Amino acid sequence: MNTGVPPTRRRKVVLAGLAAAASLVLSGCAGGTGDLVAYDLPAKSARYTFEADTNGVKTVWEYSSDKPTKGDAPQLQPCMGDVVGDNRAACRPEPLIFLRYDLGLGLDNTAKAGETHPITVVGYYQERLTTPPKLNSLQVEATFDGGRTWQTVSSKAAGTNTFTASIRHPKRDRAARGVGLRISATDTGGNTVRQTFPTAYKLR
Questions:
Q1: Which residues are registered as beta bridge partners of 181?
Q2: Residue 7 has pLDDT above 50, yes or no
Q3: pTM, 2 dp
Q4: Are 76 and 26 spatial neighbours (Cβ–Cβ below 8 Å)?
């Protein structure tokens, strides 16, 4: 995590071990043991960048965080520090944007070449965040040459935190490596995420 705020009056953020990008859990809690890794964060409001690389899929989050003034963790889903540590301070999840995809692929995880192909992207947050922001923009880019060049794909809102896009596929021989995707989203809190799939799917 990167921040320019001096390390005065610090608090703990606990990160659960990453088995996949979707398993990322950040919360304003103290404590850490086993597979948990604790990071010190300043109590003062600051902007952070967090990066994860899981099986070649790179995700970069930028978000704002400050010291919680009150707890925001239901009893059924307590903060990690409450479970494995001795945390007694106010605790809440960090407002990281996660993305869920419906790529509309066939049973062989491919899509037809030479046609316009629709995809759906849904943004969501950790369930313990009781008043999450809402996504207000999403940009889709596609690559057919392994990431050397990227093309912006038209996208539009299709419901709360939901966007659709239509990707014009080239002929199969012009996308030998398949289709790569780069998705960028911003929410009403100014938090962002960019997720890059070098190869999201192949063409048939």
A1: 142, 197
A2: no
A3: 0.77
A4: no
Distance CA 81, CA 13 (A): 9
By the 8 A CB rule, do 123 and 99 touch?
yes
Q: What is the DSSP secondary-structure string of 31-52?
A: ---TT-EEEEEESS-EEEEEEE
Same domain, 110 and 50: no
Instruction: Say if residue 116's pLDDT is above 70.
Output: yes
Type and span of the H or E element at 82 = helix 80-84
Name the residue range of residue 157's domain. 98-203
> Residue 54 domain-assigned?
yes
Q: What angle do CA 157, 163, 169 make, to 5 degrees?
A: 120
- For residues 38 and 13, what is the distance between their CA atoms, to the nearest angstrom? 6
Task: Give how far Cα 168 sits from Cα of 28, 90, 100, 110, 121, Å.
Answer: 43, 48, 21, 14, 17
Q: How many domains does the chain fold into? A: 2
